[in-house]
Amino acid sequence: MPSFNRVILIGNLTRDPELRYIPSGTAVTEIGLAVNERRKGPNGEKIDEVNFIDVTLWGRTAEIVSEYLGKGSPVLVEGKLKQDRWEKDGQKHSKLKVVGDRIEFIGGKEGSGGGGGGGGGSYSSGSSDEPQYSSAAPPSSSRQAPPPPPDGDLPF
């Protein structure tokens, strides 16, 4: 039976990215992501649960995240789950984390002046080994509806 390993998370960075380079010269950064989950309790009250997830980013994605994001930045991360296993002091340990291959900046740049939430951008290492960076669309509150089709008919 085939397997599928894909994760999409939206949350806020719990700390500033830690950029480093491995001996081959490849950039790697570790970020912590806080993902909130709101649910109803047994008495109907709203309960917020926070999940803290470690994310590893590689290459140009790691450099961009380190340059533009900091603690508290909202992001969308897409990647896959990976389980790290190690032994320390005779004890076996394991930890589940996310290896991100696409990240999208959510919200505007802090301190940029003006009001409102601001665009953002996305960054993906892509499948062609060439990094791709693109700006995101403006927030939905400032989007304009597309013009109607020329003949006045709806497309559905």
Give the number of DSSP strands: 8
**First-to-last CA distance:** 38 Å
- Helix fraction, binned, reads under 10%
Which fold name fills CATH's third level, the topology?
OB fold (Dihydrolipoamide Acetyltransferase, E2P)
Proportion of strand residues: over 45%
- Strand line-up across the major sheet: 1-3-4-6-5
Q: Structural class of the secondary structure composition?
A: mainly beta
Shape: globular
Q: What is the number of helices?
A: 1
Look at the structure and give the CATH class.
Mainly Beta
Mean of all residue-level pLDDT scores: 78
Rg measurement, Å: 20 Å
**Number of structural domains:** 1
CATH architecture: Beta Barrel
Annotated CATH homologous superfamily: Nucleic acid-binding proteins
How are helices and strands ordered from N to C? EEEEHEEEE
Low-confidence runs: 111-119, 126-146
Major β-sheet, in short? 5 strands, mixed, barrel
Describe this protein's structure.
- This protein is mainly beta.
- It has one domain: Beta Barrel (OB fold (Dihydrolipoamide Acetyltransferase, E2P)).
- 6% of the residues lie in helices and 50% in strands.
- The chain has 1 helix and 8 strands, in the order ββββαββββ.
- The protein has a 5-stranded mixed beta barrel.
- The longest helix has 10 residues, at 59-68.
- The radius of gyration is 20 Å and the shape is globular.
Write the layout of secondary structure elements.
Blueprint lengths: L6 E7 L4 E4 L5 E14 L5 E13 H10 L5 E15 L2 E16 L13 E5 L7 E4 L21
Parallel strand pairs: 4-6
Antiparallel strand pairs: 1-3, 1-5, 2-3, 3-4, 5-6, 6-7, 7-8
